[in-house]
Amino acid sequence: MRKLLLSAAIAALAAFAIYVVETGTLVKTANRPACCAANAGVAPSSAGLTLDPSLFQGEVKQAYLIAQRHPDILMQLHCYCGCEQVDGHRSLLDCYRDRHGATCPICSGEALMAGRMADQGMTVAQISDAIRARYSHGS
What SS3 state is found at 75? Predict the structure, then answer.
C-alpha cells in the first residue's frame, strides 16, 4: 500500500512539474526588470515555437517573425537583457515564446540584428559575435 501511495505521489509531482514547465505558471516576479514585467505566459502559436507575430506591430512584429522564421538560429544565441536570471530563459528564442520579446528593446534589437545577418548568409558564430559586441555591455 505504501509503495502504491508513493508511486501516486511521485506521478502527481511529475505531472505538476511538467505543467509548470510547459505553462510557465511559476514565473519569478521579484526584482524583475521593466522589460520583463509583461511576460504573460501566453501559449506559443500553433505554427511553432513562438507567439503569433500578428499579435504585435512594427519592429516587435518583425522580431517575432524572425523568431518564427529562424528558431534554429535564435536558440543558439544568448540574450543580454538578463532574462536568463529572471525568467530562466536559455536562449534568445525563449524571449519569443511569450510576451517578453515585445517589451524588451534588447531582445528586439538582437532578433532584428540576427534576422538581417541571417538573410545576408552570415553564420551563427558571426551573428553571435556581432550581438555580443553590440549588447554584452548593456547597450
Answer: coil
Q: Is 61 inside a domain boundary? A: yes
Give just the sign of the alpha carbon dihedral 19, 25, 26, 32.
positive
Judge whether 13 lies within some domain: no
Q: What is the pLDDT of residues 19-65, one digit of tens each?
A: 444 444 333 333 334 444 343 344 444 345 899 999 999 999 999 99
CA-based R_g, the chain, Å: 17
Domain span at residue 64 reads: 31-135
Q: What are the grid coordinates assigned to 103, written together?
A: 517589451
Under a CB-based contact definition with an 8 Å cutoff, are residues 111 and 92 in contact?
Answer: yes
Q: How many domains does the chain have?
A: 1
Burial of 122 (C-beta count, 10 Å sphere; 0-12/13-18/19+): middle
In a domain, 74, yes or no: yes
Considering the domain boundaries, does residue 67 fall inside one? yes
